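job 3f2a | input accepted
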Amino acid sequence: MDYQFNAADWKRLSSIDRAHRCRLMSEEATSLAESAAPELKVRYLELAEAFLRLALDLEVKAKITRG
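job 3f2a | predicted structure (67 res):
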């Protein structure tokens, strides 16, 4: 996964593409949580949940836009 974030590139993505990337980042954070120290595991899981919520919101937006 490319870890470089570029806001200009992000703006050019469709909501569905943004949602897909958020899902990938959620999976990556979940994977990192599996081997993280206990004090970091919770934070990685919170991050994974936040990315997943953002993905779901973006998917809803895409459905509304498509009508």
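job 3f2a | The radius of gyration is 13 Å.
job 3f2a | closed
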